[in-house]
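User: Hi! I'm working on a homework problem where we have to compare a predicted structure to a textbook description. Could you give me the structure for the chain below?
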Amino acid sequence: MSSPEEILRKSLDDILKDKNYKDPKISIKPISTGGANYTSVLFLITVSEPDNEDLKLFAKVGIVGEKMRSQMPTNFYDIERFAYEDLLKKYEKIQDDRQVPATERLRIPKFYGYNAKLYEETIVLEDLSAQGFTTYDRLKSIDWDYASKSVEALAKFHALSIAYKEEYPEEYEKYLDTMKFQEEAFIAFMDSTFDKLKETALSVTLEVNKSKLKKYLDENVNAKTMVQFYLTDRRKILCHGDYRPSNLMHRVNENGELEVIPVDFQTIQGTTPLIDLFYYIFAGSDENFRRRHFWDLVDHYYRELCSALENVGLDPRKVYPEDEFDREVKEFLPYGLLIGIFTLPIITVDTEDAPSMDGENDMSSFFNMKTSSLFPERLNGIINDYIRWGVI
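Assistant: Happy to help. Predicted structure tokens:
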């Protein structure tokens, strides 16, 4: 079997040939995300050739093994290819056609090419790091400046999905169906991991709260509970699906303002926008941040969504009235606790203990990793929130 770098070189040959590079000098450097990425091997690439544009590129080569693929609820490589080849181009066209101001547009990374061959899936994009962008430290809680800019970008992404529905209704319904939440596969996945994750959560819960959490989980949570949030009939749109700091790039521009660009579109799915918003907050913040900013950030997202909808010519009062948003936020509040239990063990894992999706690994081995010392702190912070809010 070819190595990821060998696969990448073959893909680059095809991409650069299409762009009229004859005999370019190519430098390839593998990079690590320190436990933030599991599905691909990542590379930075420099391409140079006389009389042709120098290129700074970023590439991902898929590494998920056959056993793991058979257990996963979605084909994320195909989804990301669709995103860059089709969906995000439509979003760019909508922004152009509706003359969205440059300062209010969603920045979409430039796409260079894709290899769709099974077990060789490769995607090549512009290298944002060469332009000063970087990822946020996944083990550090978000702060207000970063969080507010992140949800502004999220609001623009959601508004473009809604505009896409308005402008291309038949296409939209087709893709919404293609990317609908895979209920049976996800329930099977949760069935295989639920008891283990529940046990892990209770094992690190502060003694004073342990009986409360156990009672709540026993009475209100099972393998199907999380699925119900994704299957809600409330205003389904094409959501990012994994909107967290590790999947965003940011930099401080010359004017001193922070700019945030969403990346990693492998998990786009048809569901409610609150899935993305709550996932971002509870996957990336600590208790101190939420005590100070949770409700302000939720309100900021809604204000930015209204602004983004207006920028694409839609009336937010008709698309998503504020009273409906407020009601749905309260209904979705328990979802944040499930994020803490089901995803924080992976998100907060120490780099040396990060699980792998390649080879013969399967879902049981993926969720059998050693949790970090940060996990109890983050989880207990969420439990405190839910006790304070009267949910537990």
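For your comparison, note the following. Residues 4-388 form one domain. Residues 55 and 324 are 47 Å apart (CA to CA). Good luck with the assignment!
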